[in-house]
What we know:
By secondary structure, this protein is mainly β. The protein has strands at 2-5, 15-17, 28-29, 36-40, 42-43, 49-50, 54-58, 70-81, 88-106, 109-113, 127-134, 142-151, 160-176.
Amino acid sequence: MTYDFDFTDWAPGSVLTNFMLSSSPANIWDKTGKGAVFGTGFVDSNGTTVTNGQAEMHPAGHHPSMQGQYAEANRFAFVYTAPRHVTLSRLAFRCVDAGGSANLSVNGRFLSVSDMHQVDGVDFDGALASVAVDSSVPGDPVLTVTLTGVIYPKNFFGHVVFGGAELLVDRVTCDEA
């Protein structure tokens, strides 16, 4: 089964904060069968965990590189969990890395890098990362970060954690193993 999470179920202007610091159910985005996204701490370039970051929803057309509505992370990490908490064979997210450091955690392996391009070719304990760059759209280059192999659910912390100092994300797709 394939899942396609596209951030369209939330109104522009909605803000996602660190779920670990709030008991508000509004901090869990999308439980409509496409998966769930919530927020967690982001690790900055100095190795410090930042817990006061946030992600804000923006409407389609607000940023030329994004397809439709998107979430803009500011010193914030998203946790994505597929429905039914199953093992995945592929997970991809479409993003613009607009500056600062980026985080990616899969299968218990965590990386904090200066740019999301740097995860290309990294093996996350059975899930290989690849980064495709689309420079044909106006504005910043659009990256599609794809993980293939075996992607395990990690208890409460979902399948994949990704974030950035300035990271725009408009789509997450994945396939069950």
